[in-house]
Amino acid sequence: MRKIETVILGSGLAGLSAAYHLRGKEYVVIEKRKHPGGLCTTEKKDGFLFDQTGHWLHLSDKRTKELFELLFGNEFVEIIRKTYVFSHDTYTQYPFQSNTYGLPPDVIKECVLGFIKAYYEKDKSKASENFYEWCMAYLGEGISKHFMIPYNSKIYTVHPKEYASHWCDKYVPVPTLEQVIEGAVTSPQQKNIGYNATFKYPVENGIGELPKRLFDRCEKDKFMFGKYPVEIDTVNKIILLNDGETIKYSYLVSTIPLKDFLMLQKGGELKELAKRLKIASVSYFNTAIKKKPGHTGHWFYIPEEKFMPYRIGSFSNIYSNMAPEGMGSFYIEFTHQGEFESENIFRAESIKMMKDMKLIENEDDILFMDYRIIENGYVIYHKEYFEDMDEVSKWSVKNEILLAGRYGKWVYAAMEDAIIDGMNAASRILEVTK
Ligand SMILES: Cc1cc2nc3c(=O)[nH]c(=O)nc-3n(C[C@H](O)[C@H](O)[C@H](O)COP(=O)(O)OP(=O)(O)OC[C@H]3O[C@@H](n4cnc5c(N)ncnc54)[C@H](O)[C@@H]3O)c2cc1C
Predict the structure, then answer these.
(1) What's the gap in Å between 212 CA and the centre of ligand 1?
(2) 413 partner at 20 to 30 Å CA-CA among 87, 105, 165, 425?
(3) Ligand 1 in reach of 14 Cβ (< 6 A)
């Protein structure tokens, strides 16, 4: 049996970041795939670049900004976000709640009156019951009906009454009354609310360049690819791998999906809890077209049930290097739980939607549509989520396990969060081993 101070499970951004920040220490990274990067990788085909759907980098933390500068210097582009909602055959700016201008008058009226009613209702106590109640309490009936409920039902695959609301304070913007009214009566061209968010992106090779550059600075001989644990004895700190090797560790950083990680525990202390963890898978099409898209927006939220996808984005509109000169590309996303057997229906629905949105003129515009799936996409904050996570947290502290990353921690989080999680896990280990 090998003895190694730290074992890192997974080499997506969280695992890579932990490895990078532990340089010089004794550790191994165990990755089931043949390459690092996890969700943050880029495919190339016929001059087109496709990330695993949109992967646009927002940086707000000083440490990640410094790391990014070290990796990229000035080899990145900074892009101003240009996003829309498509409903009632109309493009409105995102976020929907403060940009209803252009929708049918009765829809605008419902949204504004609903917001005013919610605004003056001081009792918000029901908001913590579930996400549906949160939307009704803070955004009102009209905005909930025309965007929040249908859109979130699509992306999370369950009705907002079925999941908790505590996560949304950070991610769902609540506009002021003035913004809602201004957004209802002012043409989007005349204002810039929600228009100033920017993101960074590598000049070349897509977002996959980020983990590639991080990996290039890691100690590559400490990575084991094509390997995965089949059993983890957290009491005796022993991992059994798929090739029969056993490793005894002192510290364990897990960035692999929490549900899988808990199911691997010898003794199965938290297996019942693991069974409650739910996640939505994402099916998507890498789509290439012969012309430029019929709209210059970056990505479009699709709340209406009549369309199967929940979102379509255009790589080539966001950054022209993603497609050959004069051509265009999209990612089209649809979520579901578990396996997906309706690829052909999804393809036909996607083509219909692109035509209805006037993004393409007809099917002949399409060069190819390649189907892909992300098994673990969006964590669903099930009703017992916070109690369950509290239990997981106590258990992991007791067993000196550091959970990191979007799926390791089982949260809704971005690439920057994964990098920070890896940094924090490494700092903790450096602190206790110095
Ligand atoms: C559809 C979608 C769009 C997104 N868009 C954005 C965006 O625009 N901007 C943004 O900042 N973030 C975005 N994200 C989030 C971003 O992808 C993640 O936050 C980040 O990539 C997570 O990195 P990670 O290392 O935590 O997980 P992962 O990238 O999932 O890495 C986990 C690694 O563990 C490996 N692994 C899994 N199981 C095992 C096992 N049993 N044994 C060994 N290895 C294993 C995997 O192969 C993988 O390499 C998006 C996510 C999704 C799903």
Answers:
(1) 14
(2) 87
(3) yes
DSSP SS3 for 411:
coil
Q: Mind listing the pLDDT tens digit for each residue in 350-386?
A: 999 999 999 999 999 999 999 999 999 999 998 889 9
Say which residues have a Cβ less than 8 Å from residue 168's Cβ, sequence separation at least 6.
Answer: 131, 134
Are the CB atoms for 56 and 79 separated by under 8 Å? yes
pLDDT of res. 222: 98
Question: Residue 237 corresponds to which tokens in the numbers above?
Answer: 């700190």
CB neighbour class for 219 (10 Å; exposed up to 12, middle 13-18, buried from 19): middle
Contact yes or no for 392/259 (Cβ under 8 A): no
**Dihedrals phi, psi of 386, to nearest 5 degrees:** -70, -35
Tokens of 206: 């897509």
Look up residue 54 and give its two tokens. 């949109």
Q: 0.90 cut: is pTM over it?
A: yes
For domain 83-194, which architecture applies? Answer: Orthogonal Bundle (1.10)
Q: Which atom of ligand 1 is nearest to the CA of 13?
A: 25
Q: 113-128 in b/e burial notation, b at 16+ Cβ within 10 A?
A: ebbeebbeeeeeeebe
- Give the number of the atom of ligand 1 that is nearest the alpha carbon of residue 40: 21
- 165 CA distance to ligand 1 middle (Å): 23
Binding site membership of 29 for ligand 1 (Cβ less than 6 Å): no
Are residues 249 and 5 in contact, defined by beta-carbon separation less than 8 angstroms?
A: yes
Distance 137 CA to ligand 1 centre (A): 33
Q: Where are the domains of the chain?
A: 2-41+208-276+383-433, 83-194
- Expressed in angstroms and rounded, the spacing between residue 404 Cα and the centre of ligand 1 is 11
**Cβ 368 vs Cβ 289: under 8 Å:** no
CB atoms within 10 A of CB 321: 16
Read off the pLDDT of residues 270-281 as tens digits, 9 standing for 90 and up: 999 999 999 999
Phi then psi for residue 288, to 5 deg, are -120, 135
**Residue 110, both tokens:** 């419902």
332 lines ligand 1 (CB under 6 A): no
- Checking DSSP bridges between strand 229-233 and strand 223-225, what pairing results, if any? unpaired
- Protein residue with least CA distance to atom 53, ligand 1: 377
* Structure-token match 């100690």, residue found: 219
What CATH code would you report for 2-41+208-276+383-433? 3.50.50.60
Taking the centre of ligand 1 as the mean of its atom positions, its distance from the CA of residue 277, in whole angstroms, is 17
Evaluate: CB of 405 within 6 angstroms of ligand 1.
Answer: yes
